[in-house]
Design brief:
This protein has about 300 residues and is of the alpha+beta class. Helices cover about 25% and strands about 20% of the residues. The strands form 3 sheets. It has a 4-stranded antiparallel sheet with strand order 1-2-6-7. Helix 3 runs antiparallel to helix 4. The protein starts with a strand and ends in an 11-residue tail after the last strand.
Length: about 300
């Protein structure tokens, strides 16, 4: 999964070790028939919610794959394509679940269509759908990344063939109009990977920087977002108190705290005392009647991978 580092909102992101995994089989000899030659099954986060659509023309992941295929004159999956999704990423919690689905969908289209796209070209396709380059670049390349996004033609972005990932109440677009979808321009986004100290781990509460040893005060100050977090903290009970009271001086090992993406998930970077820091934050949330879970994660340095 990919976290947005809050002060670098839409620019800086880090991939961490919770994964979205696809198990894909293509058997042209199978006599089964299915919509768009595709059958989907799902397990993991949100499986019991009733909100996971397993129809390939409505599921975001498969609609992204179809967009990539249709840009290459393939209008459905190869017969018969069976996809099993295993998802460890909580949905709608600011953890980059939609970005991970977009990256997985682009890779899926590339693999089943035998397109041979490079990761740089796949990033262009991701950014036609998910306009947060920090999430998709971290998920695609792994590690700690900084990103840049070029502007797109508004007429292209209005095309119904593009499966937009952030239209509420549910993702929209991806309609097969019979026309060829708008193909992303080359170099739509760019990225740079930054070093991450192996001493830094991520304490993730859900409702590395290159220097070694890391400087807690420097990192803590650098994570004090002044653009979007001051507005969002009023919407998350307990967050203001946490940001004021949980600091490196009072909690040894802590480097900094921020919202992940739009929240409500909290990301704390630390080098030691991980459980103590997590339990202190959870205690503060409990005082505001908010229940939480926490995980200790490390950077996923490889990004998106394919195993054949």
């Amino acid at each position: 999964m990919a976290f947005t580092i809050s002060p670098g909102f839409d620019v800086a992101g880090v991939a961490l070790t919770r994964f979205l995994e696809l198990q894909v089989q293509v058997d042209p000899s199978s006599p089964q028939t299915a919509t768009l030659n595709c059958v989907i099954s799902y397990q993991g986060e949100g499986a019991d919610s009733g909100h996971i659509d397993l129809s390939p023309d409505r599921n975001l992941l498969t609609r992204v794959a179809l967009y990539v295929l249709r840009c290459h004159d393939q209008h459905e999956f190869p017969a018969q394509t069976v996809i099993h999704i295993k998802n460890e990423i909580p949905l709608g919690r600011g953890l980059g679940s939609s970005g991970a689905a977009v990256v997985a969908g682009v890779i899926l289209g590339n693999e089943v269509g035998k397109l041979g796209l490079s990761k740089d070209r796949m990033l262009d396709f991701c950014l036609m759908i998910e306009r947060h380059p920090d999430n998709v670049a971290a998920a695609l390349y792994g590690g700690f990344v900084g990103t840049y996004l070029a502007e797109l033609d508004p007429e292209d972005m209005a095309r119904k063939e593009i499966p937009l990932s952030e239209v509420l109440p549910s993702p929209a677009g991806g309609i097969d109009t019979g026309l060829k979808p708008p193909i992303p321009p080359q170099g739509l986004g760019s990225y740079m990977r930054f070093p991450w100290s192996p001493a830094i781990k991520a304490v993730v509460i859900i409702p590395d920087f290159g220097q070694s040893p890391p400087d807690p005060e420097l990192i803590y100050s650098g994570m004090q977002d002044a653009i979007h977090q001051p507005y969002r903290k009023e919407l998350i009970p307990g967050l203001a108190e946490i940001l004021q009271s949980v600091k490196p001086k009072t909690h040894p090992g802590l480097l900094g705290i921020c919202l992940s993406g739009a929240g409500p998930t909290i990301l704390a970077l630390a080098t030691d005392n991980f459980e103590h820091i997590a339990q202190e934050i959870i205690k503060k949330f409990a005082e505001a009647n908010v229940r939480c879970q926490w995980s200790l994660l490390e950077p996923a340095r490889d990004g998106a991978t394919v195993t054949r």
